[in-house]
Amino acid sequence: MSKLFNVAVIGATGTVGETLVQLLEEREFPLLNLHLLASSESVGQSLPFRGKNVRVRDIDAFDFSQVQLAFFAAAEAVTLSYAPRAQAAGCSVIDLSGALPADQAPRVVPEVNAEVLASLAVPVQVACPNATATALAVVLAPLRSLLTVRRLSVTACLAVSGAGREGVAELARQTTELLNMRPLEPRFFDRQIAFNLLARTEPIQGTGHTRSELQIAADIRHVLADDALKVSATCLQAPVFFGDSLSVTLELVSAVDLLAVQAALEAAPGVELVDSDDYPTAVGDAVGQDAVYVGRLRSGLTDDAELNLWIASDNVRKGSALNAVQLGELLIKHYL
Amino acid sequence: MSKLFNVAVIGATGTVGETLVQLLEEREFPLLNLHLLASSESVGQSLPFRGKNVRVRDIDAFDFSQVQLAFFAAAEAVTLSYAPRAQAAGCSVIDLSGALPADQAPRVVPEVNAEVLASLAVPVQVACPNATATALAVVLAPLRSLLTVRRLSVTACLAVSGAGREGVAELARQTTELLNMRPLEPRFFDRQIAFNLLARTEPIQGTGHTRSELQIAADIRHVLADDALKVSATCLQAPVFFGDSLSVTLELVSAVDLLAVQAALEAAPGVELVDSDDYPTAVGDAVGQDAVYVGRLRSGLTDDAELNLWIASDNVRKGSALNAVQLGELLIKHYL
Ligand SMILES: NC(=O)c1ccc[n+]([C@@H]2O[C@H](COP(=O)([O-])OP(=O)(O)OC[C@H]3O[C@@H](n4cnc5c(N)ncnc54)[C@H](OP(=O)(O)O)[C@@H]3O)[C@@H](O)[C@H]2O)c1
Ligand SMILES: NC(=O)c1ccc[n+]([C@@H]2O[C@H](COP(=O)([O-])OP(=O)(O)OC[C@H]3O[C@@H](n4cnc5c(N)ncnc54)[C@H](OP(=O)(O)O)[C@@H]3O)[C@@H](O)[C@H]2O)c1
């Protein structure tokens, strides 16, 4: 019999945490005991796992020496508080919050830079990149041998679930208010998100960019190991519950061979290419699926050294929970 | 007393047509008789104008020699059928449909290339550019003396009203079905638009681009008189009733002076610049307003010869009806 592991999920009651627990079951993660952790507010709740209800416990009282691996799927502050404790107890950490610095916890997308996992110290610390960067990396990696990208320009239309349960609840509430002709008072978002688009998902930083936009640039360069890549990113909040849509322009050093790009994407792991007479959408295709969907592949309108494409991806799955579980599968193979 | 004109509005019962009629009233267009035209289906309807109800008439029975100016705010096919008739009757034409070729009907944005109007033959034919191109031109024109744009990359998140009354009705219907947990059958759009984003607004052409994307590139080059400008455009359909949102990246030949750009935009006609600690939205700011709103002005994340910005604009007003009425105001000054 192969080895079984004790695992903790922090933030188990959240949008990402619940999906992560489902994926551990679906993908038959070699689990002995599963510990579901959240804040003290969730104590008493339980989640279904392998036909049983597993109780949610308070992270504060948790002894990390009981587990070999912990998935941190709560806010950044929670990772920053508890990951050191986990590590001190010899527990490896997969950070889904992006809180740990990249030099301590490299950002890894299994389809792209799994080789990074070969050289880490135990207990391991590794992180999922920003969800948009992950989707981009899955699509760009198989094209590396075909084309040299000078600039990547992405407009990411992000689902409200990217902001967790409260984002989802707010879009539903606002939409209902508006359809019932009741006056709208924005609460969770800073203004009307229903039937509207917000120009950013977070407050801006000093330079005018948001944290997610900075993360996209840093993470995509890190994962593709390409520090010279120019990145332009705009993250907007779309009135969509689940699934991110990315409009991408790649500026290349030479004319693009569309057929070769198509062939490479068709063969690429984790990618589903949709014919150019059709197109994928977040809700209709990507949500609930493992693959990152690519469509509207075309060379530039006015420049044949340009490639345009559209990506639809499940922000909660490949954007976070699925990528983390894949990392877990690799970690136990290499280290645990 | 100054001269008064007889004017026809074709497509008066449509999304653009109704707004156009309102604007003719609001802006005190020097009108003697207003003729509202639509298809035979609308005969019997009427629209309010200057405190009276004006009856809608069938375009088929209309004698264009009764008017000096006709606004074509119906489908392209309607312009192609009836604009020659108008012209033969000595009536000047403002084409809001983009049907007439640019060499016969130049695309004009009054704030940008009004000088084109000085050299046309009477009866005049002139057209509004694609709505996205118009918003872009209003914002880029005041920056021409400050920066040289090598490439303009835009992701246009377009409101369903861009597809007319049927687009608006379909988003409302789909949203209600979904909130009431009823099964969804897309009708007007080819799939679910409620709480989703569609990767295009129209079928693609041979090269992989849509008609609107091709129009944006052609119209922005034409209006800015810059044939060397590289343009990359993606038009996506957003679940928004009114108001377009544009995410824009400009690649420049040299580092950008943000303060100078800010000052130029603050002084520019038809532009409302929003501070970078805030941002405009289509629904919250642009809809119902004449100005094109600009926000999230910032230099590139990884390249200081890059400028990123966000534009929110009323697709029905400046995108179409307002621009057309402004053109009408100039035409009567110059020609009629
Ligand atoms: N949603 C996405 O698409 C997405 C994508 C990529 C990355 N992420 C990242 O994933 C993480 C979780 O996001 P989410 O969307 O799942 O958020 P969420 O739906 O708001 O859930 C937050 C989770 O964190 C738990 N939590 C809150 N305070 C805690 C504390 N003090 N100690 C322990 N647990 C605590 C919550 O438990 P209680 O019920 O007890 O409050 C809940 O389980 C975030 O870092 C987010 O940035 C999310
Ligand atoms: N909506 C926008 O944001 C926008 C922006 C820029 C440009 N445009 C362009 O403006 C034009 C009108 O768009 P819209 O959004 O207002 O469309 P719409 O809401 O669908 O209205 C269409 C109008 O055209 C009339 N029409 C249809 N068939 C006709 C015919 N055979 N003869 C005369 N009139 C006819 C309709 O009258 P009935 O009621 O009799 O059918 C209605 O008044 C289109 O060319 C569109 O591309 C629209």
TrEMBL record, chains A, B:
CDD domains: ASADH_C_USG1_like, ASADH_USG1_N. Residues 6-120 form the Semialdehyde dehydrogenase NAD-binding domain. Keywords: Oxidoreductase. The keyword Oxidoreductase applies. SMART domains: Semialdhyde_dh (SM00859). Its EC number is 1.2.1.11. It comes from the Bacteria. GO terms for molecular function: aspartate-semialdehyde dehydrogenase activity. Pfam families: Semialdhyde_dh, Semialdhyde_dhC. The keyword Acetylation does not apply. Gene3D superfamilies: Dihydrodipicolinate Reductase, domain 2 (3.30.360.10), NAD(P)-binding Rossmann-like Domain (3.40.50.720). Belongs to the aspartate-semialdehyde dehydrogenase family. PANTHER family: ASPARTATE-SEMIALDEHYDE DEHYDROGENASE, DEHYDROGENASE, PUTATIVE-RELATED. This is Aspartate-semialdehyde dehydrogenase. It comes from Zestomonas insulae.
